[in-house]
Amino acid sequence: MVKLRLKRCGRKQRVVYRIIAIDARSRREGRDLRKVGFYDPLNNQTHLNVPAILDFLDKGAQPTGTVHDISKKAGVFTELYLNQPKFN
């Protein structure tokens, strides 16, 4: 199973995170499948590769709670729901 999770980067007391797609069994700093975003909690900056995130979500990737909240604030899930076909 693939998860969208945060990978810690930066230096001591100056943390930044990469949002990555990674196998659920790997550790936090393990080898990622693809980098799909960036999150800086100190400056409250977020950069997301929305098409890549949507592609992983369509394939069944599960975001962690924090990544879900970051994506929700950026409006990723509204794009996901708009792209889904409607069944009657």
From TrEMBL:
InterPro entries: Ribosomal_bS16, Ribosomal_bS16_CS, Ribosomal_bS16_dom_sf. It is found in: Plastid, Chloroplast. The keyword Ribonucleoprotein applies. Pfam families: Ribosomal_S16. GO terms for cellular component: chloroplast; mitochondrion; small ribosomal subunit. GO terms for molecular function: structural constituent of ribosome. It comes from the Eukaryota. Keywords: Chloroplast, Plastid, Ribonucleoprotein, Ribosomal protein. PROSITE patterns: RIBOSOMAL_S16. GO terms for biological process: mitochondrial translation. Its main location: plastid. Belongs to the bacterial ribosomal protein bS16 family. This is Small ribosomal subunit protein bS16c.
